[in-house]
């Protein structure tokens, strides 16, 4: 899965400015006399009821108020209903259309994220490895220079004005020579393509050295890694033959963050990105996980559930857990993070940040796994070490297990137009459009959510999925239930933290423009 780099700690891409531009009529104006409750979706949360509009504005009401609304009695709620565009009125459709177009600006662009698997070789053995790593000695899983250049050519052919090239593996630092060549080649070719370029490296950092670090800093490459919590958890599921994987990762996180500060960069914005994969072992350490990230100076923590790809599909008996257990872990960890925010320590949870940005601002941070339609093919493309092209990194992961459902071409023979027009790309756009999913179309969280057809295919054998049985749906709904209850409580300290979690901090240092 791509790191994605959303929200305040990631690049802002095509963000909307406001939820509504159309003027709102005053609730006591002459038009308000005969209004009726318009289209809405609803969800009961304990003794409260959440109402959401087609475009994502929302209102929380009591059970009695909801019953009155169903009888057509607006009462004192009329002003709030009008503000949420939940009342029938002449301009209702125009307001909704304007807000929806701002919520989904990514539909006007081609894929902006281009994942390049420079090698499948890795120096660590992770119990849940989603990439199906190859042995460090297996040179047959290295990408060639020719394949790399053709991959860059296709990435720069995208109609998106912003392009992120993300290096993954395996362990990409094992092919540092190729990584450097790709950056140099992309910068040269971009003189004609005129894109805004970013480069990101996803690495375990165990093969980092001072020379590599100097080059990465000089070329403004975003560095991302994995930290699975305290050392005893991390080292138990991420094995490094030469020593402690946790110790190496921590050492280089501190060194890289120090290099950023020495370069005069704002330490609140420019830090090593880190994410966590939650296994059964992790569930016992919600607070310790947060403390580990705080000690590293990390400003963000992504509490991701275990994915069913790669080695994780074979080790599920040891690593997997009921989704209810994950949600309890999630709530405990986030409550602790909110407590730390009250004490002045700034750290955000990324799942929450993604959903809150959509809920509170009407903007979409373009996190490709949680949007409608999803980013497979139309938001991201993954280039395998052997030149085969996939709709997304998850699709590439399945190919390593022998399932080529999401293979859409090859760098040697496929044109950009052929890739974007591929029947699989078009099918995934349909399968992940929540407006067309039977249960999703009725869900109050439809404006903020997204599905992953690749996950559906792997776990249920169908791209369209059965939402009621989807573990991913349970995660998304559980998190949004938790967040809306917090929003309804409106604790000032929590609302202040949420405001910070949805603040976009530009990271222009990482941008490469043709005229630089």
Describe the structure.
This protein has 516 residues and is α/β, with parallel strands linked by helices. It has two domains: 30-103, no CATH class; 109-400, Aldolase class I (TIM Barrel, Alpha-Beta Barrel). A hairpin with a 2-residue loop joins β1 (41-45) and β2. The longest helix has 20 residues, at 323-342. It is 38% helix and 13% strand. The two termini are 31 Å apart. The protein has helices at 63-70, 78-83, 92-103, 145-156, 176-193, 210-218, 231-237, 245-262, 286-295, 316-319, 323-342, 350-361, 393-400, 416-420, 423-431, 453-460, 471-489, 492-501, and strands at 41-45, 48-52, 58-62, 113-117, 124-126, 162-168, 196-202, 222-226, 238-240, 273-277, 300-301, 303-304, 348-349, 380-383, 388-390, 407-410, 512-513. Residues 1-34 have low confidence and may be disordered. It has 18 helices and 17 strands.
| CATH architect. name of the largest domain | Alpha-Beta Barrel
Sheet bearing the most strands, described? 10 strands, mixed
Q: Provide the CATH top-level class of the largest domain.
A: Alpha Beta
The general outline is: globular
Mean pLDDT: 91
Number of domains: 2
Topology-level CATH name of the largest domain: TIM Barrel
CATH homologous superfamily grouping of the largest domain: Aldolase class I
In quaternary terms, these chains amount to single chain
Strand content: 5-15%
Give the beta-strand count.
Answer: 17
Radius of gyration: 23 Å
| Classification by helices and strands | alpha/beta
- First and last CA, distance: 31 Å
List low-confidence stretches.
1-34
Q: Classify the helix fraction into a percent range.
A: 25-40%
Number of distinct helices: 18
């Amino acid at each position: 899965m791509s790191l994605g780099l959303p929200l305040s700690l990631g690049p802002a891409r095509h963000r909307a400015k406001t939820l509504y531009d159309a003027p709102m009529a005053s609730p006591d104006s002459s038009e308000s006399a005969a209004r009726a409750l318009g289209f809405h979706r609803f969800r009961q949360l304990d003794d409260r009821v959440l109402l959401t509009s087609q475009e994502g504005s929302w209102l929380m009401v009591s059970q009695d108020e909801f019953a009155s609304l169903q009888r057509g009695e607006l009462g004192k709620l009329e002003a709030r209903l009008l503000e949420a565009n939940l009342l029938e009125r002449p301009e209702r459709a125009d307001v909704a259309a304007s807000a929806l177009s701002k919520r989904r600006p990514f539909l006007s662009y081609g894929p902006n994220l281009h994942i390049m698997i420079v090698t499948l070789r890795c120096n660590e053995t992770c119990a849940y490895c989603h990439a199906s790593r190859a042995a460090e000695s297996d040179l047959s899983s290295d990408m060639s220079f020719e394949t790399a250049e053709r991959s860059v050519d296709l990435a720069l052919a995208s109609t998106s004005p912003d392009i992120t090239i993300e290096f993954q593996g395996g362990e990409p630092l094992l092919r540092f020579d190729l990584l450097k060549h790709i950056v140099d080649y992309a910068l040269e070719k971009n003189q004609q393509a005129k894109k805004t370029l970013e480069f990101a490296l996803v690495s375990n950092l165990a093969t980092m050295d001072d020379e590599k670090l100097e080059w990465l800093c000089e070329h403004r490459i975003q560095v991302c890694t994995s930290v699975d919590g305290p050392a005893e958890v991390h080292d138990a599921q991420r094995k490094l033959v030469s020593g402690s994987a946790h110790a190496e990762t921590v050492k280089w996180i501190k060194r890289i963050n120090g290099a950023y500060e020495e370069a005069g960069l704002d330490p609140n914005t420019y830090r090593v990105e880190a994410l966590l994969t939650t296994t059964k072992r992790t569930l016992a350490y919600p607070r310790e996980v947060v403390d580990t990230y705080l000690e590293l100076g990390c400003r963000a923590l992504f509490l991701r559930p275990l994915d069913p790809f790669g080695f994780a599909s074979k080790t599920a008996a040891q690593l997997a857990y009921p989704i209810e257990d994950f949600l309890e872990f999630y709530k405990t960890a986030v409550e602790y993070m909110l407590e730390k925010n009250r004490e002045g320590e700034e750290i955000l949870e990324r799942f929450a940040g993604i959903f809150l940005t959509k809920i509170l601002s009407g903007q979409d941070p373009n996190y490709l796994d949680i949007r409608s339609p999803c980013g497979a093919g139309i938001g991201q493309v993954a280039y395998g070490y052997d030149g085969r092209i996939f709709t997304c990194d998850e699709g590439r992961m399945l190919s390593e297990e022998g399932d080529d459902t999401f293979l859409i071409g090859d760098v040697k023979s496929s044109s950009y137009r052929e890739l974007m027009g591929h029947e699989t790309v078009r099918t995934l756009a349909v399968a992940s459009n929540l407006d067309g999913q039977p249960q999703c179309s009725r869900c109050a969280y439809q404006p903020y959510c997204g599905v992953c057809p690749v996950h559906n295919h792997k776990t249920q054998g169908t791209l369209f999925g059965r939402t009621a049985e989807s573990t991913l749906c349970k995660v998304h709904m559980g998190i949004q239930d938790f967040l809306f209850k917090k929003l309804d409580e409106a604790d000032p300290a929590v609302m202040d933290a949420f405001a910070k979690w949805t603040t976009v901090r530009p990271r222009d240092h990482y941008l490469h423009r043709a005229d630089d």
